[in-house]
Amino acid sequence: MTELRTARLLLRPARPDDAPCYALGVSEFAVARWLTHLPWPYTLSMASDWLRQAPVGHSEQALFIIEVPGKGLIGCLSLADELGFWIARPHWGRGYLTEAASAMINWHFARGPQQQIRCSAQADNKPSLRVQAKLGFVECGRDMRFSQALQHNVPHVVTQLTRSDWLARGSLKCA
Known about the structure:
Distance between the termini: 19 Å
CATH class: Alpha Beta
Number of strands: 8
Strand content: 25-35%
Radius of gyration: 15 Å
Strand order of the largest sheet: 1-2-3-4-5
CATH topology: Aminopeptidase
Mean pLDDT: 92
Shape: globular
Number of helices: 6
Number of domains: 1
Order of helices and strands: EEHHHEEEHEHEEH
Low-confidence stretches: none
CATH superfamily: Gcn5-related N-acetyltransferase (GNAT)
């Protein structure tokens, strides 16, 4: 699978040795509470299993580990039915997620005819919704989803970004 580089980040395929850092970052409740489908508490064996079966980017699905060179794994981006992401709490508020997601969106639209990407966030997850808005995602619906960490249904805002909107922003680097 491809590695993507940005000014500050390396987006790369998952490796089995990522499991400890992955589990540590995503298992913190401040992170996990926003990841609706994530089992919580999240264990090292769950991380190992997830990373072992992670999509490798040969189809419409992909998973990239977000790494700060010299500092290691700080988060993850995935693309399946929706764009999903998380950043470990010590790295919040530094623009890493917007930078990483921009690179992944470029990669996704440059390599195929896909016309849109969907994303979502819990309605009260303002930082995630701000990142989505910065990237050009617009609200296209709302629904309720069961949160594993919170153990109840939570309202979700569903967003989408179209290829034409991304192109209009001048964001796509290669066609």
